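Hi there,

I know you've been waiting on this one. I reran it after we fixed the sequence typo, so this is the corrected version. Both the input and the resulting structure follow.
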Amino acid sequence: MAKPLNEQKLSHKVETHPTSSLRDEFTRLRDTVMQRAYDIFCQRPAELAGPLDDWLAAERELVWQPQMTVAETAEGFVVEVAVPGLKPADVEVQSTDDEILIKSAVCGSAPEGEVLHVSELPRGRVFRAVHLPRKIDREQVSAELRDGLLKITVPAAPAEAARNVPVAA
């Protein structure tokens, strides 16, 4: 018989690290999910589920991918992400030349002394990367969190004019 949610040992409280690159961030996340999937594999009876089920269970437990909308405007993009229960200090937004990364180490948890029988509220660390179809002006990206909706305004980078290249003889 399965334990109530608040009695299960969840390993989803993972520290965020300064991101040197999105590849490094994805690698760290993959390694964490892989370790948790292995732990689930070791704990379940052999005749139940399978490796894919273990991976998906670990991913659901560790990572909350909030719903979002990405809209293109004349000036750039507007990204809206539903993050109910998080405060501005809980959320980290990073930008590269054409991507936005949203993450948070804050997770939902069961109230002390209560036994959860059903929990449909988001749990796990927030991790969401958005690849944009145009280059962006990373220095002008702004984010605002109000009423559980994170709104990120992403100006497009100015188009560069073609450069004449002299042809040598």
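Quick highlight: DSSP finds two helices and eight strands in the chain.

Best,
R. S.
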